[in-house]
Amino acid sequence: MRSQIQKAETGRAVRRRFRLLKRVLMCLLVAAMWTAPVSSAHALDKNQIIQMSKLGMETNAIKGAIDGAGSELKLSPEEVGELRAAGVDEEVIKYLEATGHVEGGDEADGGEEAPAPADDEASGPAPAPAPGEEEESKEYTEEELEKLAEEKAKEINEEKKAEEARQRKIQAEARKLPQAKRAVESGDNMSAAKTYLKFLSLNPDPEGDDFYAAKFGLAKALYQEGILSGAANPLLDVIMAGAQRPHFKEAFYMLEELTKRIGFQPPLLEEMTKFYVGDMNAKFKNDFHYYLGKFFFDYGRGDLAIEYLDKVEKGAADYPEALYLKGVAQLEQQKQGEALKNFERAIVAGEQEPGGNEEILQLGYMALARVFYEVGYYDVALYYYQKIPSKSARNASATFETAWTYFMKNDYKRALGTFHTLHSPYYSEWYFPDLYILESAVYLNLCQFDKSKEALAKFQQTYLDKRPVLEKFLQETTEPKAYWTALTGIYQKDKPKAARNLPPMFANAVLDELEFYNVYGVIQTLKKERDALKQNVSALGEFGQQVLGSVESQLDTKIEEGGILVQQKLSEVNKELQDWDLKATQISFDIGSEEEAQLERRLRNQSVEEEGVEQGTTLLIVADDFTPWPFEGEYWADEVTNYRSRLRSSCSAE
């Protein structure tokens, strides 16, 4: 009997110790779940709830673990069924449903119980256990529980020590941030950047003020050093932190420069439309609204562009530009009337700026001239074309379009005078293949057949005879980079092989494109940034290597983009020449048939005198009057836009 009592007491002691070990392990599990980040390996899930239940963990403790898991814990109705099947306390399951941890839990609370399975379903084969289910149902021995508890306690302790050590390092590096800020202000950018990078590498709280200050400091240091691509991402983080944060304004103006110099305007910037800037000064609000308007304009989203450009107030620095962009956006929406008004307002606003805004004035004049040309108001179009200064880079285009305008209004005298202007040395490098076709057509209309043929011969000599060289270049050049290298090297002393025979006039057709100019500017900026990075890459460590790789990748991408642009434009030139060649052939046939017709008329009307051709075919206009002055073979810059022809028609009457 005594022996039996001793055995019973020994058994109770073992069970007590076993239960104690289980409680220790359960506490450790709960501690791990509550102290670890939600996204870590210790996040609470269905399997851990089953394991806690099998370990005999108290219901309140399991509820505490559920509360600690937060919103990350979501179970499907199927998983809840697995909990029931595994013997989890119904109180725990109801708590999961009541606290919103079960998907569709609200419906489940108010719905009816699922019907019991039919006998034939119940008698079917049991489903195969899910992976790990057999392991979950395993009964642990006392020794295994002791070992598991020790390992878990050690793991938690090590994690706690590591986190404490990390926090100490973060605090130590955070104390260096004011010194880094002073370094940026004094121009010691690389030293400051190194400090900021070391702090950020410790993964501090992204919602903390130190994190925000470090991101801004890093962006500013790299920006000031000319490492714009490196500054871009931390600057974007600062911007996206919101307009009410302390460095938003300064970050915004740096963003403006990055957009201008390296084309940095990721789609994420659309999020700025959610920012409230109503409590900021008028200048910043105007700058902010203009930037967003231009951002949406560049992305081809006209309605949003107009919405934000409308918010730029009269008198703002970008007010004339905002009006002009609104006009362009409205043209794309086929709103010509509103577009014309905004072009006119842009010109007035540009004139009112101190010293005048010459760029906007010229853009506005050209826009108005082209719109009026399109709708057939040729005299109005000529009025605006003539406002482009003779020394402007747009003068050649304006003069050439003026020739077309005179032609369309049948003013051949002025059209021929404009052709004469465009043949001067001042315009010799411009690509105007249709100039000779247009000139030939005018002479044909005046029955000046020899001159019409002469214009076609000049077209052949100037353009068509050189076309085979262009075709060969297009056939032999296959890579975008080769196109870019050839085009940009055409004016170098040591020209790339591919560019040596390409006529400059074809290259000029590409160089005149605004898009080419923009890509070229970005490439030059990236090259400077790459050189600056190479000098400082050691100070920036791994981050510097990453940024350098990113810059080189962007540079390659931009060069490829530029090369594709060159290829497309030269292909367009080649196709255009083919089309003009066809038109030249048609005019040549017309010349032959019209010559025959004129000869027949003269034979039928021999008594009718032929109209002669007056000598001295150009005039120089002086002030409001004009004085005839024969062209003597020398062009003068102040006279070159004022030539008039006095050539009369040689056509015989019907």
Total helix count?
28
**Tell me, what's the shape?**
elongated
Euclidean distance between termini CA atoms: 148 Å
Question: How would a crystallographer describe the biggest sheet?
Answer: 3 strands, antiparallel
Residue-averaged pLDDT? 81
Number of strands: 3
Supply Rg: 40 Å
- The percent range for helix content is 55-70%
Low-confidence stretches: 1-9, 32-42, 106-124, 131-137, 610-644
Strand order of the largest sheet: 2-1-3
Structural class: mainly alpha
Topology:
Layout: H1 2-35, H2 46-54, H3 59-69, H4 77-85, H5 90-98, H6 105-110, H7 119-122, H8 133-136, H9 142-174, H10 177-186, H11 189-200, H12 209-224, H13 228-240, H14 248-262, H15 282-298, H16 302-309, H17 319-332, H18 336-352, H19 358-374, H20 378-385, H21 395-408, H22 412-422, H23 434-445, H24 449-462, H25 467-476, H26 480-488, H27 504-511, H28 514-604, E1 618-622, E2 625-628, E3 643-645
Antiparallel strand pairs: 1-2, 1-3
What does this structure look like?
- A 3-stranded antiparallel sheet has the order 2-1-3.
- The protein has helices spanning 2-35, 46-54, 59-69, 77-85, 90-98, 105-110, 119-122, 133-136, 142-174, 177-186, 189-200, 209-224, 228-240, 248-262, 282-298, 302-309, 319-332, 336-352, 358-374, 378-385, 395-408, 412-422, 434-445, 449-462, 467-476, 480-488, 504-511, 514-604, and strands spanning 618-622, 625-628, 643-645.
- The model is unreliable at 1-9, 32-42, 106-124, 131-137 and 610-644 (pLDDT under 50).
- Helix 1 packs parallel to helix 9, helix 15 runs antiparallel to helix 16 and helix 25 (467-476) packs antiparallel against helix 28.
- With 654 residues, the chain is mainly alpha-helical.
- The protein is elongated, with a radius of gyration of 40 Å.
- A hairpin with a 2-residue loop joins strand 1 and strand 2.
- The protein contains 28 helices and 3 strands.
- The longest helix is centred in the last third of the chain and has 91 residues, at 514-604.
- The termini are far apart.
